[in-house]
Amino acid sequence: MPLHDMPLDDTTLDNTSPALARGWHAVATTTEVSDGPTQVWLLGEPWVVVRLGGRLSAFRDRCPHRFAPLSAGRVVDGRLECAYHGWRFGSGGRAVTVPALDPSVPIPPRACLSSAAAVGERFGLVWIAPAEPVCDLHPFPEWDDPIYTRAATAPRRTTVSALQLADNFLDAAHFPTVHVQTFGTPEAAYVSPHHVTRDGWEIRTVYQAPYRNHDDPLVATGDHPLVQPHVLTKIGRPPASVSLTLDFPLTGHRLAILFVCQPETALRTRVYKLMVHNGIAPGDVGRITDLVAYEDFVLDEDLAVLERYERMTLATDLRAEVHSSADKLSVAYRRVLSELAADGGIDAQEATE
Ligand code: FES
Ligand SMILES: [Fe+2]
Looking at the predicted structure, is the pLDDT value of residue 349 above 50? Predict the structure, then answer.
């Protein structure tokens, strides 16, 4: 049997693999989490995100009393109140009020919510690490640098797994075949030799490649060629965040993109795509709108292939697929994921209860 026809069951990860609990996941935009409890999905489980007394908290969306979804409840006096019998929980997850109980009787110590190991807000997104994360949130320093203008596509849902998507954003060789209507160009078919470095759980590479730069106004005047060099820096962190930094020597422009893929359920992923650009003025609504529409279309090009996969899983056994020397970063990503899984993927429930 050819190696790539091997059964994959023991060597694949999908959106519900417990190993993915040990990392940071974007679960909503900041604006989606208002004053009331908000349900989000992660690794096949519902979570509730809520601001209690000014503090952002995330709990499994299941009341310990009769398992009612806490996201159906409300916030009262800085406590999360369950919609079923009115138990109230503080920001640490402990029950502080049980209406049916005689006030002189102590509240059972197990009347406590399952908390995420870590919660945060960065880059306009709400993040959860269900279990202790193996590494910090993905770096995106340009987001806070005033020389850049920010933009973001609307969060996007797809059946493709978060790991397959992150793998696609790290992939080097699909530009001329997948992105034929946008930046891909036949000159980019050959992927120049590049080193992949690893720092802890982070992988990165830098290389130069030709790029059809529709974004350069001097192309229309004939002062710049449409196909230009660009230096591409790719960084990946598990479970499924990837940044791409595109530097264009002819224009001096930098476009940096942060992708974060939220594994909601086995067949549902939400993709966040944040962008910064130093060649677009903050008030230039027309160019910002064009950039967002263009980058949405680039994602369409990727999804047109990825959504036709037979399985929404990623094989971490390097013998399962056939790799070329252009796939070094993709191979490194599989190694990182394989180590994450071997390092004791902790079930979120075990970790927090
Ligand atoms: S189920 Fe939540 S208070 Fe009873
Ligand atoms: Fe792509």
Answer: no
